[in-house]
Design brief:
Oligomer: single chain
Number of domains: 1
CATH class: Mainly Beta
CATH topology: Lipocalin
Structural class: alpha+beta
Largest sheet: 8 strands, antiparallel, barrel
Order of helices and strands: HEEEHEHEEEEEEE
CATH architecture: Beta Barrel
Helix content: 10-25%
Strand content: over 45%
CATH superfamily: Lipid/polyisoprenoid-binding, YceI-like
Shape: elongated
Strand order of the largest sheet: 1-3-4-5-6-7-8-11
Radius of gyration: 24 Å
Distance between the termini: 59 Å
């Protein structure tokens, strides 16, 4: 009968394996996930006749940080591997005019592309204020089925010891960059401007 013997070096390696496994589990546990609670998105544009505005409150998504974002301290450590995902239902953004809404949804092919999304892949601290943090972020924005990598500067207001974040930002975009034909009316005599400004105010929390 063969006698099985364990290589003594295995015993020496076991503590290292245990420490490595514990480090991995601790890293995974340390990730802080913020979930969207409420928000407002505003789209402001122009036309050959007058300006227009649409608003919506249906913002869903989450923010993932390495640890809760404090109002001070090591901010970069909290956002080193930061990720964020935002979804806005196109038809949740409305104006006071049903005609404007219909033309906007048609131009954006809302039946086929129901969501506007932004996937943040990087965040860099730009400015640290007494009650707010300003970040330069980069991510992929998808509108009407077209994806673009865009920079986006956001202001974050940490509250409740970093358990709640109010995130604000604004971005001017050209509809033509996303393959959107500018809405028009009155046989084309009234036409929307190509550029619109999208602003948002989003509150996220972690338990």
């Amino acid at each position: 009968m063969m006698e099985w013997k364990m290589d003594p070096s295995c015993w020496r390696r076991l503590p290292l394996v245990a420490v490595f496994s514990l480090s991995l589990s601790s890293a995974a546990w340390a990730e802080t996930i913020y979930t969207g609670k409420s928000g407002m998105v505003t789209v402001v544009g122009t036309s050959t006749l007058h300006g227009w505005e649409m608003k919506g409150e249906d913002i869903k998504g989450s923010v993932r940080l390495d640890k809760p974002l404090p109002p001070s301290g090591d901010i970069n450590a909290a956002v080193k591997n930061a990720k964020a995902s935002i979804e806005i239902v196109v038809t949740s953004i409305k104006s006071d005019s049903d005609g404007l809404n219909d033309k906007a949804y048609g131009a954006m092919k809302a039946e086929e592309h129901k969501l506007i999304t932004f996937e943040m892949t990087e965040a860099r601290l730009k400015e640290q204020k007494p009650d707010a943090l300003v970040f330069d972020t980069t991510g992929t924005m998808t509108i009407s089925g077209t994806q673009k990598t865009v920079p986006l500067t956001v202001t974050v207001l940490p509250q409740n010891a970093g358990r709640r974040l109010i995130i604000k930002g604004s971005k001017e975009i050209a509809m033509s960059d996303f393959g959107i034909t500018r809405p028009s009316a009155m046989l084309g005599t009234i036409k929307a401007g190509d550029k619109v400004t999208v602003s948002f105010d989003w509150t996220v929390e972690h338990s």
